[in-house]
Design brief:
It contains ten helices and eleven strands. The protein is α/β, with parallel strands linked by helices. It has two domains: 85 residues, Rossmann fold (3-Layer(aba) Sandwich); 124 residues, NAD(P)-binding Rossmann-like Domain (Rossmann fold). A six-stranded parallel sheet has the order 1-11-8-7-5-6. β9 and β10 form a beta hairpin. α1 runs parallel beside α10, α6 crosses α7 and α6 crosses α10. The N and C termini lie far apart (64 Å). The relative contact order is 0.17.
């Protein structure tokens, strides 16, 4: 009997659909004299971070968003960074502010995220927005988690009642995804480096989301037949970008699978643009 390969969850196509809608929304906002604005603060010049920041800036500008890149030295003090962020908080041209991660070792990410006005925290990383998310009333959903949920919903498969397993418990991906899946009434298990018998857990998953950052961690024998598999892992191996999932073997067991690259990555950028436009829309109500 011939094996049927999984349907590929094409993040680029899904992102383009989002951009088409955003262009219309931005056009309507500009008719009301509101130009969505996004400021991205980058500390240092790590090549990978620069690539991500430049992609976000380019996409924002192509959509008609006023995008600004703020470059600071990687040895910047917390006080100096705070001054810059407070200035952006008070600048009405910018509805969204993000600080590109990872940060230099001398800066505490929690303290840095607390500097951003929660109403402009379009990454959704501040404790206020994380709290809103875990209370079931999200204000800004972290972009990667939002993109993952959009990919899941694009399958048209029911989430409620399904067994979901999330690999990774970071505050930027793993925990937000788990919270969103619970909001959709999935039964959620979060696995991490201390989980015993990982295969036993993953084999039960109708929905498997891997954000462990370990290349090839998920093999075919660890995946339930017919599962939906979302690969969030991004690791450079030589000049090749690879995910957590052994794509070639797993695609023959899963019903849907996201590739790396071209899966979650484009959706993360699209979701950030959605959050920025949402922030701009909210500013209309604040001024009314």
């Amino acid at each position: 009997m011939k094996k049927v390969a999984a349907k590929i969850l094409n993040g680029k196509e899904a992102a383009n659909q989002i951009y088409s809608e955003l262009e219309k929304e931005i056009f309507e906002l500009k008719k009301k004299l509101v130009e969505p604005g996004l400021a991205i603060v980058q500390l240092g010049s790590v090549p990978e971070s620069s690539i991500y920041v430049n992609k976000k800036i380019e996409k924002a500008k192509s959509l008609g968003i006023n995008a600004l890149k703020v470059s600071l030295n990687d040895n910047v003090s917390l006080d100096h960074l705070a001054e810059k962020i407070v200035s952006l908080n008070n600048d009405r041209r910018f509805h969204g502010i993000i600080v590109q991660l990872p940060l230099p070792e001398h800066l505490d990410p929690v303290k840095v995220m607390e500097l951003i006005n929660p109403e402009k925290d379009v990454d959704g990383f501040s404790s206020v927005n994380q709290g809103r998310l875990f209370a079931g009333k999200p204000y800004f959903v972290p972009a990667t988690a939002k993109g993952i949920m959009a990919l899941l919903k694009s399958t048209k498969q029911k989430i409620a009642g399904k067994k979901a397993v999330v690999l990774g418990r970071s505050s930027t991906v793993g925990r937000p995804v788990a919270a969103l899946l619970m909001k959709e009434n999935a039964t959620v298990t979060v696995c991490h480096s201390k989980t015993k018998d990982l295969e036993k857990e993953t084999m039960q998953a109708d929905i498997l989301v891997s954000a462990a950052g370990k290349p090839g961690l998920i093999k075919a024998e660890m995946v339930k037949k017919g599962a939906i598999v979302i690969d969030v892992g991004i690791t450079m191996q030589g000049k090749k970008l690879v995910g957590d999932v052994d794509f070639e073997s797993v695609k023959n067991r899963a019903s849907f699978i996201s590739p790396v690259p071209g899966g979650v990555g484009p959706m993360t950028v699209a979701s950030l643009m959605q959050n920025t436009v949402l922030a701009a829309k909210r500013s209309l109500h604040e001024e009314a």
